[in-house]
Write a structure and sequence with these properties.
The complex is a heterodimer of chains A (280) and B (305).
Chain A: H1 2-37, H2 41-44, H3 59-66, H4 70-101, H5 107-119, H6 126-135, H7 142-165, H8 170-178, H9 183-194, H10 196-212, H11 215-220, H12 229-239, H13 244-264, H14 266-270, H15 273-279
Helix pairs in contact in A: 1-13, 3-13, 4-7, 4-10, 5-7, 7-10, 7-15, 12-13
Chain B: H1 17-45, E1 48-49, E2 59-60, H2 64-71, H3 73-104, H4 111-123, H5 126-136, H6 143-151, H7 169-192, H8 197-205, H9 210-221, H10 223-238, H11 242-247, H12 259-268, H13 273-298
Antiparallel strand pairs in B: 1-2
Helix pairs in contact in B: 2-13, 3-7, 3-10, 3-12, 4-7, 5-7, 7-10, 10-13, 12-13
Classes of the chains: A mainly alpha (280), B mainly alpha (305).
């Protein structure tokens, strides 16, 4: 009996030991980023490096925030990300509902092409998308980014939401139909309110993707005043040579909204929507 | 064709077509214009020596771009690098994510704390983490070299990680694994929580050890989840672009190009849209066929998705 208990205790110690060790390894890059961002340039290039800055300063944050057009880029990113999320969720929810509840000509082929585009990365189409953006006058336009972002997020969002909508009981919808409600009422009054967790998850992951999007923004935007944050951060790195303190201060500022969102809405990040959809 | 067998349910009849149309219209419009059209256009461009000058017509060259890709040593190396990245990072992520999920499953203190730590890289932008790894693997005075040479004394001299083609992929692999663990872990955790405790108790009475429980009970029960994660990670691995673009940009001497960075460079640095499109299309066909093979191979009749 005592042997067994010892075994269990050892097991627990081992378990926490591995978790703590793994956790430290996972955190080291972030800690190093924070440490670097708190150093003056002279200390950043110093070797051997100070692991914990002896004279920490927030100068990099002040400089990142006030230099150039950082606040403009932040605003651009917010505008693009938020409007893309709103549009993407509404449009993909509508499409997903049609897939979950109706039969219509061409349904199979349409669904198949959605599955296909789930596998093919968007960057495969970057060349014609670039030509298309020129033809439609969408280069150097935030609206252009929004349209492309919404479109590229449609396959995954539609697929996930369709999986969720199919789990909703049809009986309630049928009862509402009997009472004379039309499908738009059913959709807005019943389906969407019942799907809040799924919609939240889809919104969050879309937001993450849009907030971080780099390739389309890099390819479509030349006008410096239309840049988004990821482009700005990457070019911070180029422009200021090796001023890593500044690069990471800017990066940390860009991370704040996402981390805040994660802390506030953690259960939607870690919920099982993706697995649920796939178990069908 | 969609209106067959519609008598049973009131909501499937042909009168609903206008309603369906309204639900589908905005999505289909965007989908066709911004997704399907570019894909088809890319297919067309791949058969041309595509002209970017308005008054010079593009020349149809048949399969020349594809033939060029098959002969191009850089394209081959890029393909090799892409596949190697996938072969290394996918098992790396799955094994470590599964280990983390198993350790965090059940009653454990600080679960939310550990989960957050493992998940933080997932929600951090690729741009930021790529720059961060580039900075850590700098030579000679980067953090990793400091750790290996000055602290742990594992090496005599600093390693020029990103300066040499033979070592430059290692930081990229490590980044891929580190960033991805949390994503798979969360999905595994959700799946593990669906396994009832009683099954393990019964197995314990039968004298099954931890390893046996894992192989005989846990893994078979979460098989659909494993397959899902595997397929998604392989697709993601073959699509690797950003860490290369931001850490090595294909260098030194194009030795770390992956297919998509090479495609991008061909298109937007050398303005060879035809060749770029051919490379993109070959990659797309490869990814899609591989995914279908995997789904066919792994799927059991009961696991329909």
């Amino acid at each position: 009996m005592t042997n067994q208990r010892k075994g269990i205790r050892l097991d627990r110690i081992l378990r926490y030991g591995i978790l703590i060790g793994g956790g430290i390894i996972m955190m080291v890059p972030f800690l190093w980023m924070v440490s670097t961002s708190l150093k003056e340039y002279a200390y950043v290039i110093e070797f051997p490096p100070q692991l914990i800055p002896k004279e920490p300063t927030l100068n990099n944050f002040v400089e990142a925030w006030t230099t150039g057009q950082f606040q403009l880029y932040l605003t651009n990113s917010l505008i693009v990300a938020v409007s893309s999320v709103v549009l993407a969720v509404i449009i993909s929810a509508m499409m997903a509902y049609a897939f979950a509840r109706f039969k219509f000509p061409g349904k199979e082929i349409l669904f198949f092409s959605i599955l296909l585009l789930l596998m093919v990365p968007n960057i495969i189409g970057i060349i014609p998308q670039f030509l298309l953006a020129i033809a439609l006058g969408l280069r150097n336009s935030l609206l252009g980014l929004v349209l492309f972002y919404v479109a590229t997020s449609l396959p995954l969002n539609t697929f996930l939401l369709r999986g969720f909508f199919e789990t909703l009981p049809r009986e309630m919808e049928e009862a509402m139909l009997m009472d004379g409600a039309n499908y738009f009422t059913i959709f807005t009054r019943m389906v969407l309110p019942l799907s809040t967790p799924a919609l939240a998850t889809v919104s969050i992951f879309s937001l993450l993707g849009f907030w971080d999007e780099y390739i389309l923004a890099l390819t479509f935007i030349d006008d410096q005043t239309k840049r988004t944050l990821p482009i700005a951060i990457a070019s911070f790195h180029g422009q200021h040579g090796t001023d890593w303190g500044l690069v990471f201060a800017a990066s940390l500022i860009a991370m704040i909204p996402i981390v805040a969102l994660y802390v506030a809405l953690q259960r939607y990040f870690t919920g099982g929507l993706t697995t649920g959809a796939f178990k069908g | 064709m969609g209106t067959r067998k519609t008598k049973k349910r009131p909501n499937l009849s042909a009168q609903q077509l206008p309603t369906v149309f309204v639900f589908l219209l905005p999505g289909i419009f965007l989908f066709l214009v911004f997704n399907i059209y570019p894909l088809l256009k890319s297919f067309q461009i791949s058969f041309y020596d595509w002209s970017i000058v308005p008054n010079r017509p593009s020349e149809f060259v048949g399969l020349d771009n594809y033939a060029q890709a098959l002969k191009d040593p850089v394209a081959r190396l890029a393909f090799r690098n892409t596949v190697l990245y996938t072969i290394i990072t996918v098992p790396g992520q799955i094994v470590l994510a599964m280990a983390a999920a198993l350790l965090l499953n059940g009653r454990i203190r600080g679960k939310v704390f550990f989960r957050t730590i493992f998940y933080l890289p997932v929600i951090t932008s690729w741009v930021i983490v790529s720059l961060l790894f580039r900075y850590m693997f700098q030579s000679p005075n980067g953090f990793i070299n400091y750790l290996l040479v000055n602290v742990l004394h594992l090496f005599e001299n600093p390693i020029g990680w990103l300066q040499s083609g033979s070592t430059a992929m290692i930081p990229v692999w490590l980044l891929g694994i580190w960033k991805g663990i949390g994503w798979s872990m969360v999905i595994f955790l959700a799946a593990l929580q669906t396994i009832p405790e009683e099954i393990y108790e019964a197995a314990a009475i039968d004298g099954a050890g931890s390893f046996n429980k894992l192989m005989q009970i846990t893994l078979p029960l979460i098989r659909p989840t494993l397959v899902f994660v595997l397929v998604m990670l392989i697709i993601g691995g073959l699509n690797v672009f950003l860490p290369i673009a931001l850490m090595t940009n294909g260098g030194p001497l194009q030795q770390t190009e992956v297919v998509l960075t090479y495609m991008y460079h061909q298109a937007f640095d050398f303005l060879d849209f035809g060749y770029g499109s051919a490379l993109a299309f070959m990659m797309a066909i490869f990814i899609v066929s591989l995914s279908f093979i995997q789904i066919k191979f792994f799927r059991r009749p009961s696991e329909i998705y």
